[in-house]
Specification:
With 358 residues, the protein is an all-alpha fold. It is 68% helix and 0% strand. It contains 11 helices and no strands. It is flat, with a radius of gyration of 22 Å. The two termini are 37 Å apart.
């Protein structure tokens, strides 16, 4: 059982924290590779899910021809890439293979050390369930990735935007949980009596605002909505573009219409900025100025990258950097929320603000 009943002398919170931060950095990287995979229309190039044997790529011409034959059977080839040669197929295969390889790497980079720490009874009391939950999210993420790919193999030429959004949101939720847990463990390494940080009301509200923004960013990617307009702040010369088609239901307009999704993502960003400014100011008041500065830098760069991505006609390098910026912004917000939660806990436990005076 991974729920540790470990004596404090055998627990290694700092080692666990370093391990979780390494895996978190790997998740940031795979988010960027996933974005490039989508931007290059590579996600459907591997049409089968082989969790174990799929780690070995085609090694000879016969194997490449077999993979290419599988790809030629799906609608994307017939309707979008008809006439593509084997060289072109290898180019899109590379990004999807790299994305899946990294997913397997993250799974093993998490599972093997987790077992090692558990067998050696180095997991602090109270963290076993949380670490298992994070691994469950990694497994769920892999499953969602395949369901996303499968959604584009029969009746579509691209993956379903809803599945893409779910896949990305799960990855970023896992990232935030991993960073939060690593920070809790780091605090424990400094002070064995340290308690886990708690989510404050302000941090929860900002988290919800960011969830909406990330959701619409994912829908932007799935619907290719960034191509609707290349001007800013107007959209094709107008503030509100209107629906792409007439007669759309409210649900379709809000979550499936490229122009409306683009409009919401573009302007909800300012609600996210307002929330992040409030969070950063609250974090600064607790004495964690670097975390507050990181939040400001992250959302400032992200806004500029978003504008540049739209005005460039969704340049792949800029769009990939925008996706990287989103992941790093979430990390900065998580660090800030954690600092606020620890300060809130200290104030409630020690009203003087100093445990030595309590």
């Amino acid at each position: 059982m991974l729920q540790a009943t470990t004596p404090a002398t055998t627990a290694r919170p700092r080692a666990l924290s370093n391990w979780l931060l390494f895996v978190a950095a790997s998740i940031v990287l795979i988010v960027v590779v996933g974005g490039i995979t989508r931007l290059t229309e590579s996600g459907l190039s591997i049409t089968q899910w082989k969790p174990i044997t799929g780690i070995v790529p085609p090694l000879n011409d016969a194997q490449w021809q077999a993979e290419f034959a599988n790809y030629r059977r799906i609608p994307q080839y017939a309707l979008t890439n008809a006439g593509m040669g084997l060289a072109g197929f290898k180019a899109i295969f590379f990004w999807e293979y790299l994305h899946r390889f990294m997913g397997r790497f993250i799974g093993m980079a998490y599972l093997v050390p987790l077992i090692w720490f558990a067998v050696r009874r180095q997991i602090p009391h109270g963290y076993g369930v949380r670490l298992i939950a994070l691994f469950s999210l990694i497994v769920l993420q892999g499953t969602l990735g395949w369901l996303m790919v499968r959604s584009g193999l029969s009746d579509r030429t691209t993956v379903a935007p809803g599945w893409l959004a779910t896949h990305l949101l799960t990855a970023l939720f896992t990232l935030a949980g991993m960073v939060w847990t690593a920070l809790d463990l780091r605090a424990m390494a400094r002070s064995p009596e340290s308690r886990p940080a708690r989510m404050t009301g302000l941090a929860a509200i900002v988290g919800i605002v960011l969830f909406v923004q990330i959701l619409y960013g994912a829908l932007m990617a799935g619907l290719r909505a960034g191509l609707v307009a290349q001007d800013w702040p107007l959209m094709n010369g107008a503030f509100f573009p209107g629906a792409s088609q007439s007669g759309e239901s409210p649900g379709t307009m809000l979550f499936g219409d490229p122009a409306i999704v683009h409009f919401i993502h573009r302007w909800w960003a300012w609600a996210a900025v307002a929330g992040l400014i409030l969070l950063a100011r609250a974090v600064k008041r607790t004495g964690h100025r670097p975390a507050a500065v990181a939040i400001h830098i992250a959302f400032g760069v992200q806004i500029l990258l978003g504008i540049a991505t739209v005005m460039s006609g969704v340049s792949i390098p800029l769009a990939a950097l925008h996706q990287l910026g989103g992941a790093l912004l979430l990390v900065a917000a998580t660090i800030g929320a954690h600092a606020l939660g620890r300060r809130d806990h200290m104030v409630s436990q020690y009203p003087s603000g100093n445990p030595r005076k309590a």
